[in-house]
Structure formats: C-alpha cells, structure tokens
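Late entry, written up from scratch paper. The run itself happened at the end of the previous shift, but nothing got recorded in the book at the time, so transcribing now.
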Amino acid sequence: MKKLNNKIIIITGAAGGIGFCTAEMFAKAGATVILTDINSKSLLKAKKKLKESYKNIQKNVELVAGKIIKRFKKIDVLINNAGIGYTGELVDTSYETWKKLIDVNFWGVLNMTYTFLPHMIKEQKGSIVNVSTGQAFFRLPTWGAYASVKLAMACFSEVLYYEIKKHNIDVTTVYPFMVDTGFYDEAEPETLAGKISMRLVPYYSMKPESVAKILFESASKTRKVERVSFLNDIAYYGRVVPYFSDTISRIANYVLTKGKED
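Output as recorded:
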C-alpha cells in the first residue's frame, strides 16, 4: 500500500518479537494499528512504547471484534502472527499439549479470519497475512507436533488464497526460518545437542525486524507464499530430491533424540 494513513491493521501476537516490530513499521507508515496478544501486561507495555513515538496505536485488551468494526468501520489488513512453540517427541506429547498448540496456532488463525473476513468481503477488498513456519518444510523429529499444526494452518491459508481472490482479497502465507525472539524460550530440548542449538539461536537465526519487514510488505503484495529464507527454499524443493528429506530427518533424529533416558 502506497498510503497507509487511513488503513486499519490488526496484528495478533503483537506484544513482542515479530509482531511488535511489524506493528512499529505500520505505525511509522501512518496506519492505525490494533495490537492483540494473550499477554495483556506485555501488550500494554508494547502499546506504551509505541505511543511514545506514534499517536495512532490502539490496544485490544477488552474490545471484541464487533466493537472494533463499529469503531473503525473497516479492517484493511489482518496479520495472524500469534503462535506458541513446543519441542518433544510425538510419543511423549500429551493430549493437553496438542490441544494448546491447536487452540493457539490453528484455531486462533481460523477464529480471527472468520471474524473479520465477512467485513472484507462486504468491502470487496483487504489483505490477510498468516504466519506459518519453515518447520512445515523441514518436519524435523521432536518438532512434529508443532510442525503438524502449523502445516495444517498453512494449508488452510494457501487454499483460502484462491477461494477469496474473487472478492479482491489477498492472502499471503509466510514461512519464517528460525527467528531470534522469545518464541524458543518455551522449547525444552531433552538432548545436549538440542539444548546447545537453542542456546545458539541468536547466532544462526533471523532477526525479528527482517521478518517484520516481509510481513509489512506482504500486506501490499499479491504473492501467495513467502518462504523468507533460502534455507526454506532448499527444504521445500529438496522434498522432490530422492533421499534428501529422509537424510535430514535421520540426522536430526540422531542428534535431537539420541541419548534420551527412558
């Protein structure tokens, strides 16, 4: 979008990391940004930090969707960024963990989409950006539950792209590579190699500002998919190369699950 002064942007998971950086970019460009996050305290801090520089930040701690529409009359861009991480072997993944992952990473996106999509259809314009993960291509052992849910959400997003194109609404599915945020703080690898890999995240992962820029630009582009990193490209195209994905999974299984105590 060349002009954002009159645009209404909703960003989920906006209290920190990628979401906060994205909100900052939209606010700086002149858009009205509605911040949403499950952590209300962090959300209020984010709002305060942004409002020190920009006058067009709104918080969405208590407002429901109907009140948002009533107040702003429209929604131009919905960015479904919120998500939680998890690492663990599938046989050790509890039903409760599956439910939490599905509630946040899958139903969260569907709920937001189905809430605001009718208003976009009515206006015959809008943009939806859904954030998946590069794990959808790598599908590594110990990340199976997380990748499965994110992959399901990505399928929903990519199909939605075709189905609502007739309403002049764009849908972009973004697949970030590993990003240096607090997202991986909840990950608890059970092997030494896994723990070391988490410690080294700041050194081999992307910066949240870099991914935020992609989300910001996705709101005006018409690309169906953003794979973000060349490493995701390798994993994506590597799935058609004989033994490539199998080799990566075998190595990951050896490194991330070897030595676990019974």
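The chain has a mean pLDDT of 85.
(Scratch paper discarded after transcription.)
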